[in-house]
């Protein structure tokens, strides 16, 4: 019998909500730089939203705020309807562990552990019993076409297999929110296509929401919405603004990618 997984699609609260969020930094000459100015953003369960913005415009800052890696200077951040803006470090760590999954351009798997163990680790940190954690890891490995590779260490996996394992690890604790930073940027075209499809399907099937930062217009055009940062404000744009046409994710739109093979 397939493993039962939480399905958040009946939940009405947004997976992520930023309201009037402000973030400022002080540069070397003590001038204040306001990176985000009253930024608003809402992601609902099942949504996959692209974030497309040039370097230096606050994209990383926005992801860090959404992932509770930084604190805002003003405004509020809510995850699953709960205001998390002012939580202490211990409470923030618990929210990151239980409600947020992170996927990066580079997999950041722990080389001394197997693929299955890498997926088990966040579950064990959340006090999931080892047997249940292993069952979830094996189910996710099977879902990502890695059923026979759970006992391999990252050094024995291809680039695509590492990234699939990293996505499986991000989904291990049934998060409400996935934050992905260039998740296919280091993969070749064919591998990027399959990895993106798998990410899309697992996020939708589990009723999560995903915010995907990308420099790839073709990839962005295949998501539900496209957001950009304009003068520190989050703004929605159309695929045509990026010079591409909207294309359903299942349509096989070609992706501009790196050179690592599957």
Automatic annotation (TrEMBL):
InterPro entries in the record: AAA+_ATPase (IPR003593), ABC_transporter-like_ATP-bd (IPR003439), ABC_transpr_LolD-like (IPR015854), MacB-like_ATP-bd (IPR017911), P-loop_NTPase (IPR027417)
Record CDD domains: ABC_MJ0796_LolCDE_FtsE
Annotated protein name in UniProt: ABC transporter ATP-binding protein
Domain ABC transporter: residue ranges: 16-256
Single GO biological process annotation from the record: protein localization to outer membrane
GO cellular component: plasma membrane
Keywords of this entry: ATP-binding, Nucleotide-binding, Transport
PANTHER family named among the record's database cross-references: IMPORT ATP-BINDING PROTEIN, LIPOPROTEIN-RELEASING SYSTEM ATP-BINDING PROTEIN LOLD
Gene3D superfamilies attached to this UniProt entry: P-loop containing nucleotide triphosphate hydrolases
Keyword Isomerase carried by entry: no
GO molecular function (one): transmembrane transporter activity
Signal peptide: none
Lineage top rank: taxon: Bacteria
Family statement drawn from the similarity comment of this UniProt entry: Belongs to the ABC transporter superfamily.
């Amino acid at each position: 019998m397939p493993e039962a997984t939480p399905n958040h699609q009946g939940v009405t609260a947004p997976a992520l909500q930023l309201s009037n969020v402000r973030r400022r930094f002080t540069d070397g000459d003590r001038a204040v730089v306001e990176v985000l100015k009253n930024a608003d953003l809402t992601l609902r369960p099942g949504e996959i939203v692209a974030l497309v913005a040039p370097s230096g415009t606050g994209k990383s800052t926005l992801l860090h705020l959404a992932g509770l890696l930084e604190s805002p200077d003003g405004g509020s951040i809510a995850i699953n309807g709960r205001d998390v803006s002012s939580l202490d470090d211990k409470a923030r760590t618990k929210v990151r562990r239980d409600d947020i999954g992170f996927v990066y351009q580079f997999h950041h798997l722990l080389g001394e552990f197997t693929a299955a163990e890498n997926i088990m680790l966040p579950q064990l940190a959340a006090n999931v019993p080892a047997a249940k954690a292993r069952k979830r890891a094996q189910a996710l490995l099977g879902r990502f076409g890695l059923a026979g590779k759970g006992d391999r260490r990252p050094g024995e996996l291809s680039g695509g297999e590492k990234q699939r394992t990293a996505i499986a690890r991000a989904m291990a604790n049934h998060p409400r929110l996935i934050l992905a930073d260039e998740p296919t940027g280091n993969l070749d075209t064919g591998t990027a296509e399959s990895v993106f499809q798998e990410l899309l399907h697992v996020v939708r099937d589990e009723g999560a929401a995903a915010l995907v930062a990308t420099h790839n217009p073709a990839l962005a055009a295949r998501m539900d919405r496209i957001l950009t940062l304009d003068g520190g404000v989050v703004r929605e744009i159309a695929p045509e603004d990026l010079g591409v046409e909207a294309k359903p994710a299942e349509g096989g739109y070609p992706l501009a990618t790196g050179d690592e093979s599957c």
